[in-house]
Amino acid sequence: MSATYDLNERPDYDDVLQQIADYALDYRIESEEAWETARYCLMDTLGCGLLALRFPECTKHLGPLVEGTIVPHGARVPGTPYRLDPVKAAWDIGCIVRWLDYNDTWLAAEWGHPSDNLGAILAVADHISQKRVADGQAPLAMKAVLEAMILAHEIQGVLALENSFNRVGLDHVVLVKVASTAVSAKLMGANREQMLSALSHAWVDGQALRTYRHAPNAGSRKSWAAGDATSRGVRLADIAMRGEMGIPGVLTAPQWGFYDVLFSKTNRDQALKPESSRSFALPQPFGSYVMENILFKISFPAEFHAQTAAEAAVSLHPQVKGRLDDIDRVEITTHESAIRIISKQGKLANPADRDHCLQYMTAVPLIFGNLTAEHYEDSFHQAHPEIDRLRDKMQVIEDERYTREYLEADKRSIANAIQVFFKDGSSTDKVAVEYPIGHRRRRKEGMPLLVEKFRANLQTRFPARQCDAIMDSCGSLGRLEVMPVHEFVSYLT
User: Fold this and answer.
1) 8 Å CB contact between 281 and 226
2) How far apart are CA 105 and CA 116, in angstroms?
3) Which residues contact 325 (CB under 8 A, 6 or more apart)?
4) What are the φ/ψ torsions at residue 393 (nearest 5 degrees)?
5) Coil, helix or strand for 83?
6) Is 126 exposed, middle or buried (0-12, 13-18, 19+ CB in 10 A)?
7) Can you tell me the mean pLDDT for 15-40?
8) Interior angle at CA 455, CA 490 and CA 306, nearest 5
9) pTM of this prediction exceeds 0.90
C-alpha cells in the first residue's frame, strides 16, 4: 500500500457478523429445555419489571418524550398506560426489567443479563402483532417472542464466554445492543443483507463505558443502561430495514475497526494485548446452551456475585442477631470476579452503589435476616448505622478454587462463604454456598420459587382476577406459545 492512498477494496462482512446473522435467521430451536426455560424467563423478567414500578426513580424515565403523543398500534409498557413507538417502548421495558438487578444473569468471561433483551423483543412484537391485525393478517404468536428470547440469550451469552469487555473498560450492554439488534431485525422480517447491515451498525456505534458500575462513580445509569441498549437495537434494526448499507469490516478494519479501536489494549496499563487476543473468540457454535443454563435471581435483588453470600448470611442471622456488638470480624471468602466488581470500602452514595457492594449485601441479611430492594434506599441506610459498622469489620479473602470453578463450563459456580468471629474468641461455623437458587444445578428447587416470585410481583400491580389470568396464560408452554402477542400484553396493562 502506498503512503499516499488506501486500497479501496470493499471486504466481505466479518466472519463473526456472518455467524450471528446466519444463526439468527436460520437456526431452528429443538431443545425442549430451552423452550420451557424461556417460558420461566418470560415470567420472571416481566415480574421484575412490574416490581420496579414501585420506585419513582425508575418511573420518572417512562413514557413518551413528548407528553400526550399518541402512537397508532403503539407498543405497551407492562404495568403502565403507555403506548409508545417501539424504540421508546424498548427503552422503557428494558429499563424496568433491569432496574432492581433482579432479572436473570449470565456469568462467564463477561457478565450480563440476557433477559434485558425482552425490552426490544416485546416492544417490536407487540407493535407488529397489532399492526398485522389492523391490516387483516394473522397476529404474531408468543412463540415468536420465546424464540427471540432464546436467540438473544445465545448471541449475548456465547459472545460473553471468552470475550471480556469489562477488562478493556467497556460495559456488557454492548452485547445487549448486538443481540437486540439481531432479534429485532428477525422479527421485522430482515433478509441476510439487512441483518448483516444492522449488526454492523451495532458494533460501529459508540459503546458504553463501565464507569457507572464501579467505585467511586457507581450510579443509577446501570439501572437504565439496558433500556438504552435495547432501544438502540430496535432503532438500528429499523435503519437497516429501510435499506441502509452496512459496514462490512466493522470489526477487523485496521486502525478504524472495533478490534483495533476498542479491543486491542488491556485496561489499566493500556498495554497491547497479544495479537491472538485482539479478536473475538467463539468457543462453541450458537445453539440453545445459554437459555438452558441461565442463572435466575430468585432469592435476592442483588448483584449476582453476591447471591450466595446473601444466602449464607441469611442462614447465619439467627446466630448473630443478638450479638452484633460482640462481633470482632466477618470473613467473606469469595471468587476473583466478586472482588474485582463488588468488593468496596468507604461511603456508599446511592442505591446503585449499595446493590453492587459485597459487604453491604452481606451485612444487611446478617443483621435483618433478609435482603430486599427497599434495603438499598437512602432512607433505610441512613436509619441503620449498624450496617456500616459491620461493613468495617469485614475481610474479603479469595479462594482460588472458587475462582477456578466459576469459569469451568461444567460447574460455573458463584461461591461465597461467610464466617463470623466474636470478641470472646468464639465463632460461627463457616457457611459456604457454591451454587445459588436459580442455578441450573438447583433448577428443580428454584422453579416453584420463581413462580411464587412472579405471582407476588404481579400482585403489586394488578387485582387478583387479572393476576390469575396472567398466571393462567403463562401456565403451560403449549398455551402460551399460541397466544397472540398483543392479547398477552393486554393482560399486563
Assistant:
1) no
2) 10
3) none
4) -95, 10
5) strand
6) buried
7) 98
8) 115
9) yes
Q: Which residue's entry shows cell 463450563?
A: 409
Quickly tell me which residue has 439488534 as its cell: 181
Q: How far apart are CA 78 and CA 181, in angstroms?
A: 21
Name the amino acid, one letter, at 17: L
Give the CA dihedral 229, 143, 85, 73, nearest 10 degrees.
Answer: 180
Burial of 380 from C-beta contacts in 10 A (0-12 / 13-18 / 19+): middle
Residues 6 or more apart whose CB falls under 8 angstroms from that of 491 comprise 466, 469, 470, 473
Q: Are 491 and 466 in contact (CB under 8 A)?
A: yes
DSSP 332: E
Distance, in Å, from the CA atom of 263 to the CA atom of 315, rounded to the nearest integer, reads: 42
> Could you give the residue ranges of the DSSP H alpha helices within 2-77?
15-26, 32-52, 56-59
In the block, cell 456472518 appears at: 18
What's the pLDDT tens digit per position in 287-332?
A: 999 999 999 999 999 888 999 999 999 999 999 999 999 999 999 9
Separation of alpha carbons 239 and 179, rounded Å: 16
Neighbours of 470 (CB within 10 A): 23
Q: Is the pLDDT of residue 426 over 90?
A: yes
Is residue 226 within 8 A of residue 98, CB to CB? The reply is yes
DSSP string, 391-456: HTTEEEEE-HHHHHHHH-TTT----EEEEEEETTS-B---EEE-S-BTBGGGHHHHHHHHHHHHHH
Contact in structure between 120 and 183 (CB atoms under 8 Å): yes
Residues 6+ apart with CB under 8 A from 6: none
Give exposure, 104-117, as e/b (b: 16+ Cβ within 10 Å). bbbbbbbbbbbbbb
Question: Which residues face 396 on adjacent strands?
Answer: 332
- State pLDDT tens for residues 72-107: 999 999 999 999 999 999 999 999 999 999 999 998
pLDDT at 2: 62
C-alpha dihedral sign at 178, 183, 184, 185 = positive
CB distance 402 to 309 below 8 Å = no
21 exposure class (CB count in 10 Å sphere: 0-12, 13-18, 19+): buried
Beta strand ranges found along 180-335 (DSSP E) = 327-334
Bridge partner residues of 105 (DSSP):
295
pLDDT exceeds 60 at position 1: no
- CB neighbours of residue 381 within 10 Å: 20
Instruction: List alpha helices for 258-299, DSSP H.
Output: 258-262, 289-293
The Cα-based distances of 108 to 405, 410, 412 in angstroms read: 11, 12, 8
